[in-house]
Write a structure and sequence with these properties.
71% of the residues lie in helices and 9% in strands. The protein has 118 residues and is mainly α. Strands 1-2 form a two-stranded antiparallel ribbon.
């Protein structure tokens, strides 16, 4: 259990410290997500919202783990995650179309499943 918590802390530290997105956007995403969830709940109800969230977070977790594994914990470039070495530090510099396309596909799949299952 301690190893899992250490790995979660590692990922959270990476998210907080990276410069892939401006800080204001990281905060804005939280409000955007809350607004989208509230709107989904308003239009489609609790059961469809819960199914959407479960599927979306599961698929997003898979994308996260694929990037984490393929980049060897964000230390080497893969697809659209570009990593550079600055002195003794390795830093992620950019992420782009493949990652955001995967997030959009996750949302579309989640919407479709929640509409047909719940």
């Amino acid at each position: 259990m301690t190893k899992l918590l250490d790995e979660i802390k590692y990922d959270l530290d990476f998210v907080k410290s990276n410069t892939l997105q401006p800080q204001w956007y990281k905060v804005f995403k939280i409000f955007m997500l809350i607004g989208a969830i509230a709107a989904y709940y308003f239009f489609f109800g609790l059961s469809k919202t819960v199914v959407f969230l479960v599927v979306f977070f599961f698929l997003s977790f898979l994308v996260h783990m694929i990037y984490r594994i393929k980049t060897k914990k964000y230390t080497q470039s893969w697809l659209d995650l570009k990593v550079v070495k600055e002195g003794n530090e390795v830093k992620a510099k950019s992420i782009g179309k493949f990652y955001y396309l995967a997030v959009a596909i996750n949302a579309i799949i989640s919407i479709a499943i929640s509409q047909f299952v719940a």
